[in-house]
Amino acid sequence: MNAGVVGTLRKLIGEDWVLDNLEQTKGYLYDQTEELIRPRAAEDSIVVKPGNTKEVSEILKYANEVKIPIVPRGGGTGLCGAAIPTKSSIILSDERLNKTIEVDELNLMVTCDAGVTLAALLEKLKEYDNLFFPVHPGDEGAHIGGMVVQNAGGAKAVRHGIMRNHIKGLEVVFPTGEITNLGGKLIKNNSGLDLLHLMIGSEGILGIVTKVILKLYPEPKYSGTLLVSFNNREDAIAVVPQILQRGIIPLAIEYMERDVALESAEHIGAKWPAVDGSVDVIIILSEDKEDTLYEKSEEIVEICDSNNAVYTSIAESAREQNTILAVRSNVYTAVKHNAVDGLDMAVPIGSIPDFMREIFRLADRYGAKTPSVGHAGDGNIHNFIMRENGEIPPYYEELKEEMYKTAVKYGGTITAEHGIGKTRVPNLALQLSHKEIELIKAIKKAFDPNGILNPGTVVNIE
Amino acid sequence: MNAGVVGTLRKLIGEDWVLDNLEQTKGYLYDQTEELIRPRAAEDSIVVKPGNTKEVSEILKYANEVKIPIVPRGGGTGLCGAAIPTKSSIILSDERLNKTIEVDELNLMVTCDAGVTLAALLEKLKEYDNLFFPVHPGDEGAHIGGMVVQNAGGAKAVRHGIMRNHIKGLEVVFPTGEITNLGGKLIKNNSGLDLLHLMIGSEGILGIVTKVILKLYPEPKYSGTLLVSFNNREDAIAVVPQILQRGIIPLAIEYMERDVALESAEHIGAKWPAVDGSVDVIIILSEDKEDTLYEKSEEIVEICDSNNAVYTSIAESAREQNTILAVRSNVYTAVKHNAVDGLDMAVPIGSIPDFMREIFRLADRYGAKTPSVGHAGDGNIHNFIMRENGEIPPYYEELKEEMYKTAVKYGGTITAEHGIGKTRVPNLALQLSHKEIELIKAIKKAFDPNGILNPGTVVNIE
């Protein structure tokens, strides 16, 4: 990066907060996208760490004037390369925007600076008796601002939905430098086209989020975790819609293949409690009353039994529950070193069994293994395409495209929660029409006339 | 309207479905906006009634080519003039797009044609044991498509949120004629900028909604209605955040002043059960278990007692409940004939008492009466500005603007659920920044380059 640019930025936000040395910047050049498919970073990118919203605005105004790309960066926990600067860029890290976590008990909301980590928010909420924020994408190093622009999901979407459902207000800096507050501590707000919702999931191409207002909830007092094993995928998957139709809305319904569970258990040095069967379903319940918890558990066991469950256990102690959840949480880390790509498709829940059957048939046709885990309760399954001899197998692109087409055929999506970022841009047209892509480009142009924000993300604009 | 236009449209969709005679069209020239502030309709507007999505597309292509405004119309139940053609227009009524109501029990979703009424949807759901759609804006003549583009709210938002929370998929025709499906039967979907959420609340300025996929829910089995009376507004309003903080999320918390309740009761020939006090709060609970219903009712009564409630009754019989709800539902109809404007502001729930105090002080300053009812549980209060001698009082615009400024000062909105439409366009800048209005205009331009869709709604574009 040009020394003049570095000098100007240092004048704007201070000597210490502009890094231009690769030793210092290299930790900012990647996110958690799988290594073999990770976009290549432009190593002459520099890092800026503004300390407040006004500095964010000044950086954007300057970058917009000299037309240098800005790549916004939160916790770097993303899985689609959105935070990787593929062109020589100014990486705008929100790590110093982490001072405020203001809990408003009266309104059941919290205002966070964008750079606050999920871990810090959860820690803060422990100071309160009964307050709960439901979205948990797995990695607590995620920044709240990043969770907004990636519209984070996670396991609890069955009951609580995704980030979008809980974001009430945003402070945003637009690429032309204007600082704007969208929404507020409001349950209802119909004043014009909803720019707040347009920002959610916008992956850093429309503006920089600097503050977030989130809804909080009273926390149910009792929770229990059921672990149920089956001899085959079909039986396991079939219980999901049956539970939901019975009017039981668990906190999470997770699907996990046994070989994946064992690998993850080994990875963290735990013992996986189930022996019989080859596929596990984890159902987490969270209820206000203990007897409701038992009644619902019994109903679920009944449903599983009538679907040929071969093993059922109800973990009530915190220790048992934690083991099961830790194994589930660590699947990604355990499998990742041997994976090319962790796909992120979703289909309507009623179509999961048929969809999964086709996915496995496709994998068989290519002689591929696709270990699978997922948030079955919301139709979102992560199928892994694995390495062969440590490398990307020759069929990878073709198999992935066939799988994506299968998801779309079932009315599904190529990405349920990880996002398009830079890695899925070539596949976007499998799901969206020409018109939708044209409108997305036009909106991008309206917000960011010089195209400085996160180029190459979501859509390629010439 | 030019005879050539009428002729072309008749060729496109059939002789019977194009009305150009004022006798036939006059019922299409207004919505439910209060009479004295209702925008004046262009009486030479014509009405088209396409029978399917393809015909909608053909009408739009033609209108876009000849640059004639299209005003989309659903049930005509709106309260902001969005459906009123203020320029000579083609009114596109979706009344014939009312064939499909497809309940998908497996996915707990329903697919409706846009012209299906809320009444028809609720009737259809009665055929099922345990399925529930929670949004109810009051008037069941509302069309589902209209409820989408107006992002309808209503009393149950405390627990279930608004239309936005339940819309999963849309079929949309863009002004340039393209038919596109946005979203689907999915809980999670992060594929690009979210055009689905941009369409929600877009008030007919971006495209025409022709089909809607909505989420359904299992219906809680037990419901009860509490009627609690207070001697003053402050005590009544203060219970709202206290109930929510206790972790009780009722289906609805409604605030109603006694004179309004009595007027509405008289209007429908019912007897209002409360005598003592001057302000009532109605709390509707809906629970899976009978004993939970009782426990929560008792907790609420306790909270109300400690806030100086002067009368409390728990209506359990369907008859008692229905009387209370009918009185609440009919407030609008009862008060309307004597009102100039039913405002629709919302503020953070914790600010309701202070906000209301200022609103009443403002009204006093102008010597105005402001009877008030509202969805107190979500911060949304409807304050009425009343007629004087049957006319708009001279202070109306000024008082309204002062009230709007007060809402904004408390972090609120000038319209929580009714929308900007045509009546609130002049006030939009009180809430939105110049930049937000500029972005809204740019998005409008991207979707509708010739500005044919619902001109004068949301933003004025020259």
From TrEMBL, chains A, B:
Pfam families in UniProt: FAD-oxidase_C, FAD_binding_4
One Gene Ontology MF term: oxidoreductase activity
Keyword Oxidoreductase among record annotations: yes
Domain annotation FAD-binding PCMH-type: ranges: 40-219
The protein's required cofactors: FAD
Keywords carried by this UniProt record: FAD, Flavoprotein, Oxidoreductase
SUPFAM superfamilies the UniProt entry points to: FAD-binding/transporter-associated domain-like (SSF56176), FAD-linked oxidases, C-terminal domain (SSF55103)
Name of protein: Glycolate oxidase
Native source organism of the sequence: Serpentinicella alkaliphila
